[in-house]
Design a protein that fits this description.
Helix content: 25-40%
Number of helices: 3
CATH topology of one domain: OB fold (Dihydrolipoamide Acetyltransferase, E2P)
Structural class: alpha+beta
CATH architecture of one domain: Beta Barrel
CATH class of one domain: Mainly Beta
CATH superfamily of one domain: Nucleic acid-binding proteins
Low-confidence stretches: none
């Protein structure tokens, strides 16, 4: 083999390896946002695949037990019990009534076992430019003549 053939084969192997690594990483990180009713219709597929489920945190449902946090997501009339045993701390915006996404798998016990929790972005609560924060009274300006 001449040196150009060896070099070409090496380039093909390197590029092929990079493409394989990129596609394998994308497939492992793909999750789809599902509603609670869509999760119910998935059947056994919900137990086998990693999914992301969204809903509102039911008031009074957050229970902390050592490293485990249990709560209920509500969407319309559907309820889903969630158990979070992740390594990351819960977001500051995670509280009763907050919109949240749970990323994980549905257990055979009907409880959704989440490895990640995301809560509604805090920017929703930020004031718009030129607007006073909620609860802060701004004195009215007097018109000048």
């Amino acid at each position: 083999m001449n040196k150009y053939t060896k070099f070409g084969a090496l380039i093909v192997i390197i590029v092929g390896t990079l493409i394989w690594l990129a596609t394998a990483g994308i497939q492992n990180s793909q999750t789809y946002y599902k509603t609670i009713s869509e999760l119910d219709t998935m059947g056994d597929k919900a137990h086998d695949s990693r999914v992301r489920v969204g809903g509102d945190v039911e008031k009074g449902s957050i229970v902390r037990k050592a490293d485990l946090v249990e709560f209920t997501l509500v969407q319309d009339t559907r309820h889903l019990k969630v158990a979070y045993n992740g390594k990351e701390p819960l977001p500051d915006t995670f509280r009763d009534g907050a919109q949240a996404l749970a990323d994980g798998r549905l257990g055979s016990d009907g409880v959704f076992h989440a490895s990640q929790i995301q809560a509604k972005c805090a920017s929703k609560y930020a004031t718009k430019p030129g607007q006073a924060p909620e609860g802060l009274k701004v004195p009215a300006r007097k018109a000048s003549i």
